[in-house]
């Protein structure tokens, strides 16, 4: 499944809120020098890595957070048994010393790294790991992802026994990587404020405007911090981030806007444009006619000009969906139905469905791109004869209205990205096609025969591997595309800038080993400052 090398996958050099218990929107590096690093001779390490974050921190609690900033910062502070490298979504050992050893179809043992300790100096125990798992699985955000794992048990001081509900569960490492380990007995308030972990970094100072990390003096893993500090400036304003990067106040700038790419690149920054899963999706209210008719839904899909959206709204930094999974992802397979702009096809399908265009309500969240997509969709659908009203509210207000069951909307256009937790297809599918609020309440589609078929196939795939698993996932992609109840319109790119060469950096200091990723957050594992 993962035949690409780490850190080379996805890279092209050149909104996260919790809703009804489901957050909207993992990290490692090897010891080799990544592609894109400068290799410049001079002082290496011992400085401070500085970064401009596009997202503000909220809840750091690793058992519940869906905060874009806090998830990314926690990658550096808290270890799991396994970690997920957000550059290519491969897994690697953190607290575990190797792969799980299979005892039988539903039992595995994992050995814990000797001498692992939290930044407090307390040793990491198997009891800490078990409690961290239990508390994470109890949270609504993570529960669906961890359902295939029944339990973790502390067999002895160095061994964990895992019991799965799926025979020969093939994604065990990927799911265990979601669980960040903290000292048993830590309160939720303590976790939300300043979590303690066993990773290479530890939190030193946290404010609303900046966050400082320092090396964990007790870390004994393979990815020790090479610098004396990791400093984040919270710069949610794009202009402020750009100014800080141009001045060299930050070595890395998250979320470069399309109009700033050439400017910052011309200044000497390395720019990484990475295609990710992050989507702007369309969702139909299938409890309301005519959207209970798949032919009517398909008509709308063909009526929306996503190519124009990509050009006008995203400045080319997105791709039209050809499947539920983006083209560059390891488990991508093109869906049997690929939607492209075709007004004649749309009109024909409306006639076939017996639909006479009338009044239609498009809901959008207040995400700027979703709002603009709603406006273009309005124009596209009015060209078919619909009279379209747009309702735009915050994510919280939008989902509260829909979840209340009284909202008379037809279509929702909104952002979402569960890939901050990983990118195995089952995880990504479970976000919107799990047995949860999305299909039970928001689309009203959970009672359909097709949804039952999707769930059965997804469960089957969990016990498979290789080509057999890929074939099962392909069936799921096809059913989701053919029914288009909740489906990506576009998958977006993330753009990150970094000073990679101290000779061109404004302050003579650069960062070596940094590569942008395709989701929110920044990974500084195995990175270090360099100066000429």
TrEMBL record:
SUPFAM superfamilies: Periplasmic binding protein-like II. InterPro entries: Peptide/Ni-bd, SBP_5, SBP_5_dom, TAT_signal. Residues 1-25 form the signal peptide. The keyword Signal applies. The keyword Cytoplasm does not apply. It comes from the Bacteria. Gene3D superfamilies: Dipeptide-binding Protein, Domain 3 (3.10.105.10), Periplasmic binding protein-like II (3.40.190.10). It holds the Pfam family SBP_bac_5. Keywords: Signal, Transport. Residues 94-436 form the Solute-binding protein family domain. Belongs to the bacterial solute-binding protein 5 family. This is ABC transporter substrate-binding protein.
């Amino acid at each position: 499944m993962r035949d690409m090398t780490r850190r080379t996958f996805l890279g092209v050099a050149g909104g996260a809120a919790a809703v009804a218990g489901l957050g909207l929107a993992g990290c490692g590096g090897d010891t080799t020098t990544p592609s894109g690093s400068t290799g410049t001779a001079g002082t290496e390490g011992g400085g401070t890595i500085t970064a401009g974050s596009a997202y503000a921190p909220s809840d750091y609690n690793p058992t519940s957070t869906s905060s874009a900033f806090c998830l990314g910062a926690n990658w550096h502070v808290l270890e799991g048994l396994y970690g997920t490298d957000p550059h290519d979504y491969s897994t690697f050992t953190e607290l575990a010393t190797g792969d799980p050893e299979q005892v039988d179809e539903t039992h595995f043992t994992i050995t814990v790294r000797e001498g692992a300790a939290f930044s407090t100096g307390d040793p990491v125990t198997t009891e800490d790991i078990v409690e961290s798992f239990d508390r994470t699985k109890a949270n609504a955000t993570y529960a669906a992802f961890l359902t295939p794992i029944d339990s973790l048990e502390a067999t002895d001081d160095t061994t964990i026994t895992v019991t799965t509900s799926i025979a020969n569960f093939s994604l065990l490492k990927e799911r265990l990587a979601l669980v960040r380990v903290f000292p048993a007995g830590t309160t939720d308030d303590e976790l939300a404020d300043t979590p303690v972990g066993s990773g290479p970094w530890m939190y030193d100072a946290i404010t609303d405007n900046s966050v400082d990390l320092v090396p964990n003096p007790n870390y004994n893993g393979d990815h020790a911090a090479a610098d004396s500090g990791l400093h984040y400036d919270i710069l949610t304003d794009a202009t402020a981030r750009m100014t800080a990067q141009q001045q060299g106040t930050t070595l890395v700038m998250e979320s470069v806007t399309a109009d700033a790419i050439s400017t910052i690149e011309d200044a000497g920054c390395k720019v990484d444009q990475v295609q990710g899963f992050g989507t702007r999706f369309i969702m139909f209210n299938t409890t309301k006619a005519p959207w209970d008719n798949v032919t009517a839904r398909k008509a709308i899909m063909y009526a929306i000009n996503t190519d124009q959206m990509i050009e006008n709204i995203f400045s080319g930094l997105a791709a039209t969906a050809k499947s539920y999974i983006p083209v560059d992802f390891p488990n991508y397979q093109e869906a049997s139905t690929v939607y492209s702009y075709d007004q004649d096809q749309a009109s024909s399908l409306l006639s076939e469905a017996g639909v006479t265009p009338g009044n239609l309500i498009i809901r959008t969240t207040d995400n700027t791109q979703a709002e603009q997509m709603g406006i273009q969709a309005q124009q596209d659908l009015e060209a078919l004869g619909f009279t379209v009203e747009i309702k735009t509210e915050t994510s919280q207000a939008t989902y509260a209205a829909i979840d209340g069951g009284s909202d008379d909307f037809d279509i929702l256009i909104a952002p979402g990205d569960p890939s901050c937790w990983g990118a195995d297809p089952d995880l990504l599918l479970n976000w919107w096609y799990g047995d949860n609020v999305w299909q039970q309440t928001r689309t009203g589609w959970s009672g359909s025969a097709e949804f039952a078929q999707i769930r059965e196939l997804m469960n089957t795939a969990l016990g498979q591997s290789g080509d057999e698993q890929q074939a099962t996932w392909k069936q799921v992609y096809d059913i989701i595309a053919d029914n288009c109840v909740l489906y990506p319109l576009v998958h977006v790119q993330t753009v990150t800038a970094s000073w990679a060469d101290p000779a061109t950096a404004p302050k003579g200091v650069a960062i070596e080993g940094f590569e942008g990723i395709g989701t929110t957050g920044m990974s500084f594992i195995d990175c270090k400052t360099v100066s000429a």
